[in-house]
Design brief:
With 104 residues, the chain is an all-alpha fold. It has a domain of 42 residues. It contains four helices and no strands. Helix 1 runs antiparallel to helix 3. The protein is elongated, with a radius of gyration of 25 Å.
Length: 104
Amino acid sequence: MSQQRINIQYSINLEELPNEVERLYSQAVTKLGETQLPKLGDEDILTSSTIKIIDQARKDLAQTDAVLSDVQSIISSYVEYELSLSQPQEPTPPIPESLDEDAD
């Protein structure tokens, strides 16, 4: 059975963001730590067992990569948000009266 991924969106309080990002990051670290890719000798390398080992390792790495991609996206959005707060908002220039009169 193939693992299908879907994108979801939900909101949390800003104060909860560090804990949520830490939870996701820890999930990736745990999955990476569980990924097994044992050293194999010459006599074991060209076997169907090696194919299975490599396949599982690649699946685990893909899952880890997907979670890290989510974490990266969340952090990037947060950094952009923080930068937008520090930049002064440019006021919208008023519409010149001559253009306003042409609309009538």
